[in-house]
Amino acid sequence: MSAPRRLDRGWFRIAILTASAAVVAGVLVAVVGYRAGSAPTTTVTEYYAALRRGDAPAALALGSLPAGPRGLLTSQVLAAQQRIAPMSAVRVVSVEEHGSRASVRVSYQLAFPGAPHRVQDTLALDRHDGRWRLRQVAVATTLRVVQASERASVLGAPVPDGPVLLFPGAVPVTFDTPDLDLAPSVASIGLTGPASLELNVSVSPAGRKAVLAAAATQLDACLRAGAEPRCPLPSDRYVPGSVRATVVGQLADGLKLAVGAGSRGSITISGQVTVTGSWEGLTFDNAAQPGHGQLELPVAGTVYVPTTASAPRVIWQETS
């Protein structure tokens, strides 16, 4: 009868060892799962996913807020940021952990039309009760629209004067005309963004097309009979309205467009184009003298951008 008891003890020991191993394995699985679930990158990934889907409450729940007005921390503003430049290709570049603190470097792309922009940012996190939280989920900054400020708005409201809190991504400033846009170099902000953001305004691709088309039409009229007295001339030594010519090459190659310094949103045109044809110049005695061939024609003008879909009109300016 003793042999079976020894056999029972052997199986008992095996059972105890198996159970112990299972407990240890379970603890290891639990620890690994806990560490993976509470990693700083998990919080960062959830944060950018919330930004991309326009979920402001979810983004706000992942960390703390700095001091400042919170009126722009809404899902509507987030959606506007995504419409201006959708966020994509979010990637964790590096992670540094020091006890209960962590720093995560990320990069992502903002798809501005015709000018995609790669952004790099650094997020600070703190661990509370086993979970990593962002030290700040928004950035405090002051938006200063340098030009065309009368034409700018945030969701139809005036651009705030003082500091505001913003989510990372495209700056949610738009204009009452498709001809203007923020310059891509200043049109985004990250969590490490500046305390004051100088927003330079540029001519949008649609605006450039419209203004160049208007300039081409009006310049063609200037190079025909019955030209306006203010049409461009090579210099003041040419008889106004006497140039009969055609433009050589592409008009766009010789002209530069820029947004004027005022608040109304004017677009300036400058440069020179080559024309070939005939004209009347002035001698030293101010007598008209015919000429023909090629000329370099300085061009300068201003366009006051319309708010409607009507074609812009160039107001020519003297260049001499």
Would you give an account of this structure?
There is one protein chain. With 320 residues, this protein is α+β, with helices and mostly antiparallel strands. It has 2 domains: 54-202, Roll (Nuclear Transport Factor 2, Chain: A); 205-316. 26% of the residues lie in helices and 35% in strands. The chain has helices at residues 2-37, 40-52, 56-60, 75-84, 205-222; strands at 87-98, 101-110, 117-128, 131-134, 139-145, 152-153, 163-166, 169-170, 174-175, 180-182, 188-189, 196-199, 201-203, 244-247, 255-259, 266-282, 288-304, 314-316. Strands 14, 15, 16, 17 and 18 form a 5-stranded antiparallel sheet that branches. The chain has a 4-stranded antiparallel sheet with strand order 1-2-3-4, covered by helices on one side. A hairpin with a 6-residue loop joins strand 2 (101-110) and strand 3 (117-128). The longest helix has 36 residues, at 2-37. The N and C termini lie far apart (123 Å). The model is unreliable at 1-37 (pLDDT under 50).
Order of helical and strand elements: HHHHEEEEEEEEEEEEEHEEEEE
Determine and state the CATH class of the largest domain: Alpha Beta
Taking all residues together, what is the mean pLDDT? 87
- Tally of extended strands? 18
Keywords:
single chain, 320 residues, alpha+beta, 5-stranded antiparallel beta sheet, 4-stranded antiparallel beta sheet, 18 strands, elongated
